[in-house]
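ARCHIVE RECORD
Type: protein–small molecule complex
Small molecule: copper (II) ion
Source of inputs: curated submission
Record status: active
Notes field left blank by submitter.
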Amino acid sequence: MTAPIHRPAWPRRSVPRLRLWLLAALALLPCAQAAARPPGVGVSCKTAASLVYDCVFRLSDAKSGAPLSGAAFSVQPTMPSMPMAHNVRPVAAEPAADPGSYRARLTLEMPGTWNLKLLMSKPAREELHHRMDFGS
Ligand SMILES: [Cu+2]
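STRUCTURE (tokenized, with ligand):
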């Protein structure tokens, strides 16, 4: 046998190195998923009654800018300046006539700056945010 005694056939380093690769792969996994950028959101609202707003949400694909059809989400208004003060229930958005457009009627509890939280279930489970001023 010619192999030197101090060098095992299977290098001792390979096990920790394999573990490192596994860790690296696991660490990169969420990044690969997050690489799909969230859709673009445009919102316009019209006053329907006092503190009641009919809002249209226009979603677009982040890459192509094309209208995003087939999305499913609900909208929950929160007030960034008053984190615990309001607990407005989420409202399901419904597809509107225009492709990539969805409508929801929001009932707010006071005028001011609200954050509209879009709780998406399609095309991906994620949260989008859109801050808006609602006049008095
Ligand atoms: Cu408030």
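CURATOR ANNOTATION: Residues 40-134 form a domain with the Immunoglobulin-like fold (CATH 2.60.40.10).
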